[in-house]
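Sanity check. The docking grid for zinc ion depends on where the pocket ends up, so I'm generating a full predicted complex first rather than guessing from homology. Inputs follow.
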Amino acid sequence: MPSSILSQLPSLAYGGDYNPEQWPEATWREDAELMRQAGVNLVSLGVFAWAQLEPRPGEYDFGWLDRVIELLHAQNVKINLATATASPPPWLARLHPESLPVTAAGVTLWPGSRQQYCPHSTAYRERAAALVERLAERYREHPALVMWHINNEYACHVAECFCETSAAAFRAWLQRRYGSVEALNEAWGTAFWSQRYAEWADINPPRSAPTFINPTQQLDWRRFSSDSLLECFEIERTILKRVTPNVPVTTNFMGFFKPLDYWAWAAREDIVANDCYPEPRDPQSIIGAAMGYDLMRSLRGGQPWLLMEQVTSQVQWRPRNPLKRPGQMRLLTYQAVARGADGVMFFQWRGALAGAEKFHGAMLPHGGTDTRVWREMAELGGELAQLAALRDTRVPADVAILFDWHSWWALELECRPSSDITMLRQLEAYYNVLYRRNIAVDFVPPGGDLSGYRAVLVPNMYMADEALAAALERFVTGGGTLVMSPLSGIADARDHIYPGSYPAPFRTLLGLKIEEFDPYPLDHSNHLRTSDGARFATRLWSDIIDLEGAQAIADYEADFYAGRPAITRHTLGAGQSYYVGTCLEPDGMTWLLDRALGEAGVLSPLAAPEGVEIGRRTDGVQNFIFVLNHNDHAVEIALPTPARDLLGGAAQVERLALGAFGAAILVDAESDSGVSG
Ligand code: GAL
Ligand code: ZN
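Predicted complex below; grid placement will be based on this.
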């Protein structure tokens, strides 16, 4: 791809979802004029406009869209044109009731909200393809068209459909995967509970059943459901690539979103886009946003991504919807840019007056331009217009977290040793420490390239195979540091447990074996004592570990396994692998990661006070250090070398003063090439 996919924009992308179909034509001209004033250079257009683009079956109306596009083009606003297929018009359900999705309990989901389509419905697929074809043909030469926005937030509301058509598609998918019913019976372990299948026709989606459904059936269903929507995406992408081969395509992701294997999806698009709505008064939610941004950057190997949706002020879909405080919208925008975004956009441009989203924030709120939100938003647009130098710079990271959707799905099926060991909990335990230490981290899928990292963290890899074990052994032997947590290496890709002691594929890597697990009741805790005299609480889980070459660096304090290892360290070649057989509280996790990452030579970039987030982007020569004050009070930071704040004028400073929710982008004197700001 070109060095910067959004190179047709003058600077970082700035704008939002624009829904002109909700407004009279007289408003459009004002919209376009105000967009220019606010520094908007890109809008996502027509995301939910199918019913206006094809008001009756086969009867298309593009006239209004032509006029909107001309108005935007006249103000030099570029267009991320939606394919509008996320929400079919109600007539599709009337003509093709079989196009409606059906839940596991057999309930049909009707029109009246959005996203009511079965991914396998022929009627849906054909009508969607016909619309996309016409949109592509109509606007293929338009100079304002810079990107295609395929569908919208796939699986956000309807991630799977259990109808007869989908059942048939599931059978076909299983035939491709297994070849024979015999092989499927073996993989699904159907010798159990009289589940053995005689014929393909006997196999169904995991519809509501008396009790626990076959786990491999559920796992394959999740794989199939992610693939099914990806097929819908592919149908559209293929048309767009044929008609407009040079226009990049994207669809908007939702961070750590369980239903879709974004590793597989991101490989099919030109640029990753993400939607993110942290609860602005919840610090953990803001850390979660950062974690999602790091994933978005990682999905295409560090390539810049786009924050397609955030909100200026507040959403309407939580039970309580606090406002972003003054400055916080700007701060959270720079959080995304610091983590590799080359543009930030909002849902939505103009605050709606009707419909379920009328209390959702907007760039142009109900109160118009004489409002705090408008002023902060337009000022931010002006500021981002000056930051073209950041485009296509990269976020360097020494640490990788191994992360896999299939393990996530399997880990959280029912009937596990403890429902408290969830993927996000395990990830956050690690990520929160890295975030507080301001250590940059990439995510890597199993099979991904680990060679550029000093440390690899494995919060959970429930399903693993010999190939992954070998790759991790190579990484450690070659001098890397690895840290792994419980319930890793338990099962193969069919969710069959490896016989022998746990974690079978990782025993050489870790130098240990695990004979039993002891999940705790929620109100229970144990403690561990470290070899250097510290004492930390443990929660939720204990592995009962036997050493096979590793050394204990912390032992359990209580219970029948008191004195047995809780955390181990194993030297393998030039590196070392740590295993933590329990769930640590933040203090214990900090102790462990400080030790392991210290050994790996991973450094924090800049000492910062509590609540101050540091990020770094670089073009290889010039470093941009983001300093983000999430506190509702001012802070001062002594800089190791004098630096200029791109957001603060020309002066070199040695002490950086940031107000509540303040942000700075520092260029150090040595690497400063005088980019504007
Ligand atoms: C997103 C969606 C938008 C809008 C927004 C509200 O999930 O893509 O269309 O509904 O949420 O926060
Ligand atoms: Zn269906």
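Relevant for the grid: Residues 152-153, 156, 275, 277, 309, 315, 347, 357, 360 surround beta-D-galactopyranose (ligand 1) (CB under 6 Å).
Also worth noting: The mean pLDDT is 97.
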